[in-house]
Amino acid sequence: MDYKAIMEIMEQEQENQPMASEETQNAYSALDDAINVYAEAVQKDAFYFGYITAMKQMKEGK
Questions:
Q1: How far apart are the C-alpha atoms of 11 and 18, rounded to whole Å?
Q2: Which helix (H) or strand (E) holds 1?
Q3: DSSP label at 17?
Q4: Cα 5 to the center of its chain, rounded Å
Q5: Eight-class DSSP state of 2
Q6: What are the two backbone dihedrals, phi and then psi, of residue 23, each rounded to the nearest 5 degrees?
């Protein structure tokens, strides 16, 4: 079977795929939002840690 035939089958079958329910889409959206909030918090923690470490080193004259 060649690539073109496989792509045609995939395109035909995509039309038969069930759509996600509104509840599933909303849950995914909430999960995505939570992950983004978590990632931002981790980045802030890393920044503050680096900042505080640099300030301590400056005070110690390193």
A1: 14
A2: none
A3: S
A4: 34
A5: -
A6: -60, -45
